[in-house]
Amino acid sequence: MEDQEMQLKVKRVTDKFTESMYVLANEPSIALYRLQEHVRRSLPELAQHKTDMQSWEEQSQGAIYTVEYACSAVKSMTNSSLYFKNIDGLLRQAISLKEQISSSQGRRKRALDPGMLKDGGEKHSSGI
């Protein structure tokens, strides 16, 4: 009997001790301490993540601007095909005119060269 009473008393004491520990562990000041401890450990890492994300956002914005600028340049180039065709036609026309001028100057020189020189290299006068 004595043994059972002792076990009952020990059980009551352990139950009260467990209940006290549970209340103490869940007391608001302890909870706030645990929260503060968690924030103190987590905050530097979160701050680093925030700065990393801001840096990545700036880089992304720069890349987006570059891509949009390149797209607008390509669109304006596709719209300018008419101008390039005009330039091509004008260049072909200029080359053709240059060839005509060169060939007419070559014929003129050939036509003038034999009549310009007379008697061993003296210039021919027109009779004046």
Total number of helical segments? 3
Radius of gyration: 51 Å
Shape: rod-shaped
Strand order across the biggest sheet? Answer: 1-2
Global mean pLDDT: 85
**First-to-last CA distance:** 166 Å
Runs in which pLDDT lies below 50 for 5 or more consecutive residues are none
Q: Kindly estimate the percentage of residues that lie in beta strands according to DSSP.
A: under 5%
State the helical fraction.
Answer: over 70%
SSE ordering: HHHEE
* Oligomeric state of the chains in view: single chain
Helix vs. strand class: mainly alpha
Subcellular location: Lysosome membrane
GO cellular component, one term: lysosomal membrane
Protein name: BLOC-1-related complex subunit 8
InterPro entries: BORCS8
Structure notes:
0% of the residues are buried. With 128 residues, the protein is mainly alpha-helical. Strand 1 (117-118) and strand 2 (122-123) form a beta hairpin. Helices cover 88% and strands 3% of the residues. Strands 1-2 form a two-stranded antiparallel ribbon. The protein has helices spanning 2-25, 28-79, 81-116; strands spanning 117-118, 122-123. Its main location: membrane. Residues 102-128 are annotated as: Disordered.
